[in-house]
Amino acid sequence: MTLILTNDDGIDAPGIKALLHAVNGRELIIAAPRDHQSGCGHQVTTTGPILVEKRSDREYAIAGTPADCTRIAISHISENIKCVISGINAGGNLGVDAYISGTVAAVREAAMHGIPGIAISHYRKGKQEYNWQAAARWTASVIDDLLTRPLEPGSFWNVNLPHLLPEEGEPEVVFCQACTKPLPVNYRLEGSEFYYVGNYQQRSRTVGSDVDVCFNGNIAVTQLKV
């Protein structure tokens, strides 16, 4: 059975290359947005054409949203799909982020069609650089585990990797609930134009929730449902 890999950062993003490394050796198809689609949520294209560029026998660059990519992959590109895996997103998708995240929307779309899904994101602390090699290693271990776990129909996994320095050691995997507290929202006003300036790292968090787990340096795994 085939894995479908997608994301919302675009098919050439370093995160999806790390994801490909994490699932190395498995039968897979890459069906990812041609362009950056971060924050597009569950938007789908219904009134215009969607250009699909076949780059190789297993790689498709799709000029649409992450949800579009999942729809096209499961309806026209591949059969006998085992799981749709989305990521690794450059930035966290914790708690209520799931409602605006294209990364999460790609696997929610799969769950709507009865196909298991895993969304994987990498929280970023400040402006520090990502360690994609470590992210791929952690992701490989998490995927190996989650692919063996049964999911209720309409459910999917949301995984958030922490941002750790090399001297901080290896994170633990913690299964937890999604935080329901809102994101910090503020804007800088220039004339009549508003610029979002919410501070992600200062968001409120429920103790033991995915935000709390990830911010404390561990891998947060939540099971979400359509």
Could you describe the 3D structure shown?
The chain is globular and about 45 Å long. The strands form two sheets. A nine-stranded mixed beta sheet has the order 3-4-2-1-5-6-7-11-8, with helices on both faces. Strands 9-10 form a two-stranded antiparallel sheet. It has one domain (2-225): 3-Layer(aba) Sandwich (Stationary-phase Survival Protein Sure Homolog, Chain: A), CATH 3.40.1210. α1 (14-22) packs across α4. The model has no long low-confidence stretch (mean pLDDT 95). The protein has five helices and eleven strands; from the N terminus they run βαβββαβαβαββββαβ. α4 links the parallel β6 (117-122) and β7. The longest helix has 15 residues, at 132-146. 23% of the residues lie in helices and 27% in strands. With 226 residues, the chain is of the alpha/beta class.
**Beta fraction of the residues?**
25-35%
Fourth CATH level, the homologous superfamily:
Survival protein SurE-like phosphatase/nucleotidase
Order of helices and strands: EHEEEHEHEHEEEEHE
- What's the CATH architecture? 3-Layer(aba) Sandwich
Q: Name the structural class.
A: alpha/beta
Task: Tally the helices.
Answer: 5
- What's the shape? globular
Helix content: 10-25%
Spans of at least 5 consecutive residues whose pLDDT stays below 50 are none
The total of beta strands comes to 11
**Main pleated sheet:** 9 strands, mixed
Number of domains: 1
**CATH fold topology:** Stationary-phase Survival Protein Sure Homolog, Chain: A
Summed over residues and divided by their number, the pLDDT gives a mean of 95
Main sheet: which strands, in order across? 3-4-2-1-5-6-7-11-8
Cα distance spanning the termini:
24 Å
* CATH class group: Alpha Beta
Q: How large is the radius of gyration?
A: 17 Å
